[in-house]
């Protein structure tokens, strides 16, 4: 199968550095996430900011795991299989992580490199995360797309207060990624990152939290008075991320996209007027 002509994409750089030299840094200190070529990558990301595709070269005896329904195309000699990786892992993903109970695997049992291409199930960018650097990273519900190899797992971590459960946007449990391989997350709209200093706070809309390092604390804070709560479009609570650690936010998460589409659908008119 012919390979994409786009250059291979980089793995994420160290948390204390900008994601690449050309990344735009805002006055707030937030850095706009962007892709950077790497000659050693076995995967590529291409497409627009709102519809991207991940193509992976699968080496002999290696595999790629993804969410069901994300395959776009694949080499004909790849083996496919579906499992839960045990009932416990399946239930964690389905009930707590907002993912499918089942996992789709693409395994290369040939002697040649094979390709598979994956795309998110909603308009999204694809964000790579190197678990060798970010083991234990917490990610938002429904953000998982795919993982390379078998040295990775999804676990859950109970949030610390009832306020975070109800208003933090993560539910009763937060999803954590563990291992040493690469995983790929779905991110809607523009993706921004920041390295928070010790005790530094970042107030984020609860639907805009994408992922954050395990050293970052998640809490909630009221938005203000009754008028702001009812008519400011900010709800009752905002999420508060407190450093130290690396955080990622996105501007059009799945929950925000669904809400926007619901509003547009509700405002849509009926059919056109009848003729004579």
Provide a concise account of the structure shown.
This protein has five helices and 20 strands. It has 276 residues and is mainly β. Strand 2 (43-48) and strand 3 form a beta hairpin.
Defining key terms:
276 residues, mainly beta, seven-stranded antiparallel β-sheet, six-stranded antiparallel β-sheet, 5 helices, disordered N terminus
Describe the 3D structure.
With 276 residues, the chain is mainly beta. It is built from 5 helices and 20 strands. The protein has helices at residues 87-96, 131-134, 162-167, 226-231, 254-267; strands spanning 31-32, 43-48, 51-58, 63-66, 71-74, 79-83, 103-107, 114-118, 125-130, 138-139, 144-148, 152-158, 173-179, 182-187, 191-196, 201-204, 209-212, 217-222, 237-242, 245-250. A 7-stranded antiparallel β-sheet has the order 1-15-20-17-10-13-12. It has a 6-stranded antiparallel β-sheet with strand order 6-7-4-11-14-9. Strand 2 (43-48) and strand 3 (51-58) form a beta hairpin. The longest helix is centred in the C-terminal third of the chain and has 14 residues, at 254-267. It is globular and about 65 Å long. The chain starts with 30 loop residues before the first strand and ends in a 9-residue tail after the last helix. The model is unreliable at 1-21 and 271-276 (pLDDT under 50).
